[in-house]
Amino acid sequence: MAISEQKQSFQLHLQDLTNRNASFLETIYALANGHLGVRASNPLQGNLRLDEGMPGLFVNGFYDLSHITYGESYAGYPENNQTIAQLPDPRYLVIEVDGERSDQTTFATRVVDKNLDMETGLLNELFEITTPSGKILQLSLSTFASQADDGIYCVSYTIRPINFSGAVKLYKQHPYIDQVFTRDGDIRAVSRNNILDRQFLNADFPAMQITTQRSQLGLVLMWRYLGEDSLVKFDRSDGMPKYVMDLDLQQGLAESFDFGYSVGRIHSLMDVAMNHTQYLKNANAHLEHHSFSTLFTESAHKMQEFWHNSDIRIDGDPETQKGIRFNLFHLHQSAGHDGKTSIPAKGLTGAGYEGHYFWDTEMFMLPAFIYTDPQMARALLTYRYHTLDEARRQARDFGLDGGAMFAWRTINGMEASPYFPAGLAAVHINADIAYAVAEYVQVTDDQDFLVKMGFELILETARFWQRFGSFGIDGPQGGKFVINKVTGPDEYSAMVNNNYYTNRMAQHNLRLAVSYAKQLKKSHPSKLEELGVTEKELQSFTHIADSMYVPFDKELGVKMQDDGAFNMEIWPFDQTPRDNYPLLLHYHPMRLYRHQVNKQADTLMSDLLFPADQDIEQLKRDFDYYEPLTTHDSSLSRPIFSILAHRILAHHKAYRYIAESILTDLNNS
Amino acid sequence: MAISEQKQSFQLHLQDLTNRNASFLETIYALANGHLGVRASNPLQGNLRLDEGMPGLFVNGFYDLSHITYGESYAGYPENNQTIAQLPDPRYLVIEVDGERSDQTTFATRVVDKNLDMETGLLNELFEITTPSGKILQLSLSTFASQADDGIYCVSYTIRPINFSGAVKLYKQHPYIDQVFTRDGDIRAVSRNNILDRQFLNADFPAMQITTQRSQLGLVLMWRYLGEDSLVKFDRSDGMPKYVMDLDLQQGLAESFDFGYSVGRIHSLMDVAMNHTQYLKNANAHLEHHSFSTLFTESAHKMQEFWHNSDIRIDGDPETQKGIRFNLFHLHQSAGHDGKTSIPAKGLTGAGYEGHYFWDTEMFMLPAFIYTDPQMARALLTYRYHTLDEARRQARDFGLDGGAMFAWRTINGMEASPYFPAGLAAVHINADIAYAVAEYVQVTDDQDFLVKMGFELILETARFWQRFGSFGIDGPQGGKFVINKVTGPDEYSAMVNNNYYTNRMAQHNLRLAVSYAKQLKKSHPSKLEELGVTEKELQSFTHIADSMYVPFDKELGVKMQDDGAFNMEIWPFDQTPRDNYPLLLHYHPMRLYRHQVNKQADTLMSDLLFPADQDIEQLKRDFDYYEPLTTHDSSLSRPIFSILAHRILAHHKAYRYIAESILTDLNNS
């Protein structure tokens, strides 16, 4: 591929996309940096309830609680939703022409063009704005979320009157402050309506302290003009701190204004209330005396460092090349790196999945960081360590006298899934975390992490399995270690006994504990003592691991997803209209559970992670059995199928799966 | 036992009860007649939110809908709660002394005495009332719900000033009208607040049309003075129709006033709105020219008829004698007999379980009627037939191309359980209904019912099993008919494969269909044609029944509750504090599901219903296995254990179980 083509494939241009839905576009072009994320919405929308998009700023880990209402509530159910907060859109601009204001009457906004330069992280957009009286303005935005300083987001506006000359007034203000709202009933996008509290702070630029009501968190948000044009005036006369630009524009001539936003760290409400003066000072220091271009240069430099370490080049397939870069770009910009946050399932592009962290981090995203950015990988695992006490509490609440039971979906470490068959029951997350820790340590040899955090994570999850499972007495499970009533990766089966993947991963988890304990016994014996590890405990781990039951159908020679899985009817795929996928949006869960149908790779995940477990023939049988049953209704499915197809030398299929997977977001499939 | 002792055991006197909690007492002493039920509450409470009871009139099958909010909602979930409506308490009385009114300031009300004469159905109560200014009145109530005319409820008040002479004013009015409310502050608890609509009707007595908002039902409710005292005046001058009694009482001397209530049938809102004049006329005809004593005599006569047919005498154990009569009394007064209603799980004593009908009717209560009141039994089965179309719709919605799938809990025939693992998944209800139909037909030889309704119920449920189950391919289930992911009677296990009871009952259901089809083929061949029964279908039923898989542990020689049941850990009973029963209120369902612990008889229900299935040794093994695992957290459990204990000649145990069971309500255990 020529250099220009390679350059080209760093550009995500509007013409690359067929879907022009506003919500889709603002998500695809969202910019983030692990701490903050901003949707690329209509800059005039603000909190107007247009039928367009959902503009907003999202801060990783900044959430509020809301009470969960159950149809029928039972003991031990989570009490609260945790929902990432939707903060004011920093792209927001109010335009006033002829006494008409865009926050009072709707100005028509047409997207003319968008282009994201993934190489530097700069997003350029061009809008055509028509006032109710027919005056046309061209508005272009250049924006970036700083990769050099994760508190910073900058926006540069250029405004040009097309069919008139005259007075135009601009306002940079945020009169509204909202919690997440959604428009539809899609269960994957839950809607909450907590109100955030806002307090303007005393400064010569607009600044506010934003706090949540129930989670009691706070942060400081400020913005300032990055330039020296005296036309831009700070004004707080009416109690609403803002910048006002009173312009006299000439037809065809443009004026530009740059603004920088600084979003502080998350603190407790009490802390931020007491120390906001200091925090505001800190925030301001990141922006004061900086220009858009100096800030951008720093950020772009970091972005280029990222590409230097992480780029994947695919020759001969420009679409896939662009796609993989898009994926890498989002992966990079979504990952929390402060050890207190992780990667929300939808990145920092909005409130999808409520900004929660799942096993997606450890099993699907972490490996990329382990090999390209070990510091980030360590930060992500540190987040889990940070929630270890909460996981211990969960285990005690569940009646286990030892070990840790991690939340299936969470921000603050507490379980936030209101539907336990696809929540708490997905206990494989505990082994996933242990697996990820070992993978990290193995690749990086970060002994410091192992001793300080990693071993404890592996040990406490091993202790969980020891207590959560038990020895069977009946049938082929008799005398074997069984793990009952769990949900594996495939959420179209739930509350099953002996999910293959779960049991195999638990076995691995137990063995990891034994093996690292042996290692630490030599290097850091005090650590074992501190954690109360005894020889007897390790022997028990070994015994359980050796006794672990995994279901297998001898006649078919196939690893069985769980006890009884093969006695379910095959899902009637031929009677399932194409529009009824993903199935979970169209069929009662009990109907899905009663059939052999996979949302995503499940048993095959085990084949993937433990290549030494099976020869190529076994892998083929497993693959051939599960492939026709799998709907890939989760985006976590196709990549696994691709890798395994590759292993069984089905290269064409492998390529198709990975290509589809890479383009999932861009094609909105 | 002497006759006086026998008489005595028809009296339920306050001194028989140790629990004096207001809510408990008003439930125990509730009076009903299958159509209406009235709680024996403080007659001055009305809609005052005292911390006492929940007064109200409940009409069987008169419910409103309310939207169900789910923590996480999925396709196919029920949209609405169905909740029995709470209508104005007909016992309600307002007393005015010295300008102070009992509906404006709280008058202290002390329960002095209560006695229910179960032989006639008359409830006598004595209250001592103290006004805020210290005047004391004795108020006694005699009430009955007519067993002769189920629209009628009568109340006789006797009032006597104890420490004063002077003016006392009484009002019989119902200024409030409420849907069910609960006091529980926990907003997760089921609480509905639909407002009923009320419209006063034009008459020379107080009358109203009451309609629900979302279910669009209506009925006419009226009351009139049953006497000729000119002191009792009808008054509608202020828009609130009422009776006013302006009395001048002499210390120690009593005055009495009798009132009759007539509660019309349930109609559609439209119907009742158009025809309320006629319905009111009908209602009034039941009361006009009647006195309390003539109405009571008719009712008592019917009550005696009931005892004549249904009494159970237990000599030598007066407590149990009284208990069984109390049970019979409530059974009789709770059963809907119009073919459109059934028996709410808590009778007509309140809004517990929202007034829903469960399998309790067919499997636990119907047998009593089959043997003592076949007409009532037929009416109860007619209710199910009445909901058959809804059950067919449910089956189609669930993807089955034939058969009927009855709601687990319902009033109107639609599923109203918001938690499907203990709702829709309890599909055994379909076989329960078929079993009950056959039991009824076998005992009564009601061929008319069989042809008109019974066979269709059996056939459509057999068709359900044929489609809902499937043939297994793996393990001992290979080649056998399996029924996956269901919940049996024991709700401490859920979503299991091959629940013994369910499979055995389904097998019975299929065989019943074949056997009755063969019978009807001779007597009513056109019926088979009408229902599209083919020889091939019957052969399929037989084949499936013959192939039905039932799990059995060969080593233990015990019928296994479900696949994998015996590979669960035994519940840690020794670590379970006594206060933590019933377990479902204290432990996460997933914890219960992962253990061998039974809420109630499950597999043993099969042993009970199919005595020919096992010899006494097998029964003993089953009994001995399950008994220690069973908490009897459901009142449906001990009776089963009692009968089976009797069969294995454990007479002492049998007696203990049945005695505990009989006294469940009276001891509030």
UniProtKB/TrEMBL annotation, chains A, B:
It comes from Furfurilactobacillus milii. Keywords: Hydrolase. The keyword ATP-binding does not apply. This is Glycoside hydrolase family 65 protein. Residues 25-173 form the Glycoside hydrolase family 65 N-terminal domain. Belongs to the glycosyl hydrolase 65 family. Pfam families: Glyco_hydro_65m, Glyco_hydro_65N. Residues 325-668 form the Glycoside hydrolase family 65 central catalytic domain. Signal peptide: none annotated. GO terms for molecular function: hydrolase activity.
